[in-house]
């Protein structure tokens, strides 16, 4: 944990209320997100128990499965979920703008500029917790290879028409959510813990109710007591007053209320299905409200400067998947091949580096954390000395001396970066610590001054100006070019087999195409 | 937990009581490796090398023999420093060998010493290096290099520190390769989660060798059986704690190396731990138990004082390399830490004591380097918890295996109890070979040994 977050947590613990970690909001929040609160059945992997889903906080759609072990009911649930989710996802597909992109012409091999569609906005699915996001991924994995009666008339257990498509979209959102800074699928607990530090452990922060209690305690309560109440207060029957955000349920609820109600349903008692709906809805509704409370808290923060840039990449991601679905491509394979896995990892590492840099540039409090960690320093310029590079065409390489109280981890010749007003970065190298005055150090500017023999106006800081240099790059580059999958080398098993994996059944349970 | 926990009668390799000729064992291993590299039928050869077992020497020799047999080759190393070091070693052994040093386009990446070598050509463009017998570069640069025709032979150095996805990017450049590395050092890592690929043979965040062997289990695997760096006092501990199933021996015997001081100790804890380390090869300077920030000021100062006294007391080292005692200068001493801020704090403390020229760095950056005496700030010193980072086997292994004579560890008391409170909790992933020994076990093994050389000190 970064030192500044440790300090914020200690302050929060001492004060009994959460402390902000940021001054701006670092994630895009849609004006009209789709919230989905799923619940799963204990002891039965991938058997949904119910969900609240919708874009209207006052009128969520309640979906329940009266007997989760009944696969017909499970499919009926998934079909209802598809009917609720797919229209929302599709709703962003047709409003498009146009962007220019460089592509390699397959005939000439030259790079040409082409016009491509980019959706003007993209869907955003918000779930309560990290486990909820993992559950979306699980639903995606378990449904995208299902066959409908239309696709395969011989299929013994055909899936309802739109379920496989739901699986493909959930898989796409789930994969995209692994990209740092992406916002197509967001767990509320992660959103809140990025912006506030509580006085409890990271594990306890997984409880949405307790997390919100620290950030926004009810009047007259400290965050600590409110969090304790949210975590452990039980009613006379021993049922948690604040149900867990799921997808796992409270075992006391399962044993005391859910199991008897299901037994009544199984026995055919009239009204048992309605009773179950009521029960499950009662467990879901507090979490639904909590997600929207978190949404409101985050919406109150102004967005960071680079948030729209990152959201644009999410829009690209959405547009690309829309195109794949429209082109009739098969569902995502069960496993990535070697090249795809390496490409994904490389792009996520780049995204992480960019996210870290952009958050610091957008937010002085985040930058303060980097300064505390020795990865950046700010100070007042005390002197600027004109200097030039060697070589046939001398270029300006001014020496800037500044005084700082930060303690950066500088090594000789360390590269430094500083944002310029036009958004570009200026590069420099560390020269030496100053003699005498503590905290004095000199850097040599190496870029961002234009191409002339005289630095462009405003590109060299003036004495008295406060500047902030970072040891990290502001727009880190991506990884190396990887071979095409069909050129996978012998070290990685050679090219992957061409048979689409979705068509091969599971070796132990042939009825499964998981 | 006491003593060496590893008793594996089936453990292959040197052991037992039969007379052991380290030179002959090492030569036999090298000959077998070179035979497989030059005449083998499989496209790859993997060589495991414990610390200081002559890995670089092997790479240089293999490169020269391949070149002499008329096979131009490419060499992949992981850092610019490693590449420069290899080029210098190649030129030293064979000044007439044409060597290309492929480098990045940024200025200052190449060691200026290379410019003085007549047969070494450095360039950022592979076209400029056509026809050279040997071309050396980093994996990162190779990954961006495109050639019409690849190489028939390659050597991949520090292959266990290379990530699988990096190998994927460069493997198209060669047909066959010799992979050399130390399996006990730090594994490659990723700053983002890669759990979704755990268990796949080509997990991009795994080490290059793990992927290579998963897909090609029949490749010949060799190992170098003798550490020429580690003294007789250190090899058994490092071998037992970190290489329990592929043991190695030290190339020198118990009496071959010694440390001596020009002046007697002043009785302080620092001097006593130095005396202990000179006598036994290990020293543990134990500070009172306390939870501290990472840059524990007392421990950092203790590290700096140990270095200061080591220099002040006129330390001399006797080894098989020279006829008489050689002074242990600042350049022959290194300080190892777990974190960069700790290294920075130690550097500042050393500057305060007027010490310059001593290398202070993290385990990651000390990999592959060698010194007479090392002073280590224990990764778990003063910590309230033991995370996977601090428990990583490779980190401790690197820190405990950089020295030719002695290693002094500075640590807060209470690490054994800390370990007992924090057993490893890494999730077990299907299909992933469990790394063995785990860091927890290795830490206990090293601590048990260090406890025999403990000097308590209250700053």
TrEMBL record, chain A:
UniProt-annotated stretches for the region Disordered: 474-514
Protein origin, superkingdom: Bacteria
Protein name, as recorded: Uncharacterized protein
Organism: Streptomyces catenulae
Organism ancestry: Bacteria, Bacillati, Actinomycetota, Actinomycetes, Kitasatosporales
TrEMBL record, chain B:
Region of interest (Disordered), ranges: 1-24
Matches recorded under InterPro entries: Coronavir_polyprotein_1ab, DNA2/NAM7-like_C, P-loop_NTPase
DNA2/NAM7 helicase-like C-terminal domain residues: 300-412
Keywords, in A-Z order: ATP-binding, Helicase, Hydrolase, Nucleotide-binding
Ranges in a coiled coil: none
Pfam family, one: AAA_30
Protein name: AAA family ATPase
Species the sequence originates in: Streptomyces catenulae
């Amino acid at each position: 944990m970064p030192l500044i977050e440790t300090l914020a947590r200690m302050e929060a613990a001492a004060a009994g209320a959460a402390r902000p970690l940021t001054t701006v909001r670092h994630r895009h929040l849609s004006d009209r997100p789709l919230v989905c609160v799923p619940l799963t059945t204990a002891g039965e992997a991938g058997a949904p128990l119910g969900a609240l889903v919708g874009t209207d906080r006052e009128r969520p759609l309640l979906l329940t499965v009266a007997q989760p072990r009944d696969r017909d009911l499970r499919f009926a649930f998934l079909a209802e979920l598809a009917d609720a989710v797919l229209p929302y996802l599709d709703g962003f597909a047709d409003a498009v703008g146009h962007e220019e992109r460089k592509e390699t012409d397959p005939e000439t091999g030259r790079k040409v500029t082409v016009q491509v569609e980019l959706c003007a906005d993209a869907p955003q699915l918000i779930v309560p917790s990290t486990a909820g996001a993992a559950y979306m991924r699980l639903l995606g994995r378990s449904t995208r290879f299902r066959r409908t009666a239309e696709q395969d008339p011989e299929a013994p257990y055909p899936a309802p028409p739109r379920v496989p498509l739901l699986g493909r979209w959930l898989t796409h959102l789930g994969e995209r959510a692994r990209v740092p800074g992406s916002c197509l699928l967001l767990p509320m607990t992660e959103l809140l813990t990025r912006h506030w530090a509580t006085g409890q452990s990271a594990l306890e922060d997984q409880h949405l109710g307790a997390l919100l209690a620290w950030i926004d305690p009810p009047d007259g309560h400290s965050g600590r007591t409110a969090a304790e109440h949210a975590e452990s207060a039980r009613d006379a029957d021993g049922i948690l007053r604040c149900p867990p955000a799921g997808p796992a349920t409270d075992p006391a609820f399962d044993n005391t209320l859910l199991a008897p109600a299901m037994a009544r349903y199984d026995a055919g008692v009239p009204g048992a299905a309605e009773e179950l709906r009521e029960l499950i809805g009662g467990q879901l509704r507090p979490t639904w409200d909590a997600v929207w409370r978190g949404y409101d808290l985050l919406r109150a923060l102004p967005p960071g400067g680079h948030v729209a840039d990152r959201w644009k990449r999410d829009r690209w991601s959405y547009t690309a998947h829309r195109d794949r679905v429209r082109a009739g491509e098969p569902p995502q394979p069960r496993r990535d091949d070697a090249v795809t896995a390496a490409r994904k990892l490389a792009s996520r590492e780049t995204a992480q580096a960019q996210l870290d840099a952009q958050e610091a540039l957008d937010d002085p409090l985040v930058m303060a954390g980097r300064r505390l960690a020795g990865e950046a320093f700010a100070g007042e310029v005390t002197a600027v000395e004109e200097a030039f590079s060697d070589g046939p065409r001398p270029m300006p390489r001014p020496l800037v001396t500044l005084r700082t109280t930060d303690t950066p981890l500088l090594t000789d010749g360390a590269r430094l970066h500083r944002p310029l007003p036009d958004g570009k970065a200026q590069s420099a190298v560390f020269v030496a610590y100053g003699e005498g005055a503590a905290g004095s150090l000199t850097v040599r500017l190496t870029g961002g001054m234009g191409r002339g023999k005289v630095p462009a106006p405003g590109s060299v800081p003036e004495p008295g100006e406060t500047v902030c240099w970072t040891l990290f790059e502001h727009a880190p580059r991506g990884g190396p070019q990887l071979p095409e999958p069909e050129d996978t080398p012998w070290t990685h098993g050679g090219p992957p087999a061409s048979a689409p994996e979705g068509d091969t059944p599971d070796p132990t349970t042939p009825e499964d195409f998981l | 937990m006491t003593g060496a926990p590893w008793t594996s009668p089936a453990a292959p390799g040197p052991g037992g009581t039969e007379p052991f000729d380290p030179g002959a064992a090492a030569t036999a291993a090298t000959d077998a490796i070179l035979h497989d590299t030059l005449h083998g039928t499989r496209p790859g050869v993997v060589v495991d090398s414990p610390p200081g077992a002559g890995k670089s020497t092997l790479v240089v020799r293999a490169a020269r023999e391949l070149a002499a047999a008329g096979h131009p080759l490419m060499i992949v190393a992981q850092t610019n420093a490693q590449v420069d070091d290899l080029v210098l070693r190649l030129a030293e052994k064979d000044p007439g060998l044409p060597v290309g040093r492929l480098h990045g386009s940024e200025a200052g990446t190449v060691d200026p010493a290379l410019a003085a070598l007549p047969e070494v050509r450095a360039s950022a463009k592979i076209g400029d290096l056509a026809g050279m017998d040997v071309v050396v570069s980093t994996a990162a640069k190779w990954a961006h290099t495109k050639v019409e025709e690849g190489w028939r032979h390659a050597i991949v150095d520090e292959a266990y520190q290379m990530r699988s996805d990096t190998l994927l990017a460069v493997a198209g450049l060669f047909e066959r390769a010799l992979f050399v590395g130390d399996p006990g050092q730090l594994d490659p890592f990723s700053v983002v989660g890669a759990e979704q690929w755990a268990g796949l043979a080509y997990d991009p965040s795994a080490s290059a060798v793990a992927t290579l062997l998963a897909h090609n289990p029949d490749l010949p695997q060799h190992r170098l059986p003798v550490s020429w760096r580690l003294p007789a006092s250190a090899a058994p501990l490092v071998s037992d704690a970190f290489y329990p199933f592929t043991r190695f021996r030290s190339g020198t015997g118990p009496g071959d190396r010694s440390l001596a001081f020009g002046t007697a100790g002043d009785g302080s804890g620092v001097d006593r731990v130095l005396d202990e380390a000179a006598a036994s090869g290990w020293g543990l300077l134990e500070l009172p138990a306390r939870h501290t920030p990472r840059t524990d000021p007392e421990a950092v100062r203790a590290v700096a004082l140990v270095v200061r006294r080591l220099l002040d007391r006129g330390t001399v080292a006797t080894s098989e390399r020279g006829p008489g005692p050689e002074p242990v200068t600042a350049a022959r001493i290194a300080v190892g830490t777990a974190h960069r801020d700790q290294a920075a704090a130690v550097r500042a403390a050393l500057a305060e004591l007027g010490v310059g020229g001593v290398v202070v760095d993290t385990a990651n950056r000390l990999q592959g380097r060698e010194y007479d005496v090392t002073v280590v700030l224990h990764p778990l010193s003063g910590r309230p918890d033991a995370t996977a980072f601090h428990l990583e086997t490779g980190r401790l292994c690197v820190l405990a295996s950089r020295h030719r004579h002695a290693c002094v560890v500075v640590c807060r008391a209470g690490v054994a109890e800390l370990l007992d409170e924090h057993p490893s909790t890494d999730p077990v992933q299907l299909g992933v070979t469990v790394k063995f020994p785990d860091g927890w076990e290795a830490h206990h093994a090293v601590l048990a040994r260090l406890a025999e050389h403990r000097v308590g000190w209250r700053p």
